[in-house]
Amino acid sequence: MKNTIELLRGLREDKDLKQSDIANLIGTTQQQYSKYETGESELPLRALSILAEHYHVSADYLMGRTDSRDGIAALNKKIIDNITAGSLLSDVISLNTAGRRAVMDYIFLQKLKQKYEAGGKHTKKKTGA
């Protein structure tokens, strides 16, 4: 996982923004923001929250605590009916290793099936006469 310093700079550069652009967004100076990007100063909680919202990532992602950019909104997203991504994840985590592996195998097979179906490969092989 990347650390906060790498993430702050990388996210900013991905959007072709200058340090002064982000400094204005969080209500500080370019010099102070530069200190956040270099690790010389700690990023305040308020700024962390603003940046997470601005970049559409979770605060945990910005802090380097997870590789997942998705935040709580993704966990609360309904997958089907009343099942959220978070409840599905909790169910998978509650399984033993073999059960989790079986779920991953099933997901892999479903992805293959969808790829096959999307490719229009529904033609039957011709048999010789």
Can you walk through the features of this model?
It is a single chain. By secondary structure, the chain is mainly alpha-helical. Strands 1-2 form a two-stranded antiparallel sheet. The protein has helices at residues 4-14, 19-26, 30-38, 45-55, 59-62, 72-75, 85-94, 97-118, and strands at residues 78-80, 83-84. The protein is 61% helix and 4% strand. The protein is elongated, with a radius of gyration of 22 Å. It contains eight helices and two strands, in the order H-H-H-H-H-H-E-E-H-H.
Query: How many strands in all?
Result: 2
Q: Which strand-content bin applies to the residues?
A: under 5%
Helical fraction equals: 55-70%
Question: What structural class should be given to the helix and strand makeup?
Answer: mainly alpha
Taking the alpha carbons of the first and last residues, their distance comes to 59 Å
Number of alpha- plus pi-helical segments: 8
- Listing every helix as H and every strand as E from the N terminus to the C terminus, the arrangement reads HHHHHHEEHH
Average pLDDT, all residues:
89
Rg estimate, integer Å: 22 Å
Unreliably modeled segments: none
Reported for the largest beta sheet, the result is: 2 strands, antiparallel
Give the strand line-up of the largest sheet. 1-2
What global shape is seen?
elongated
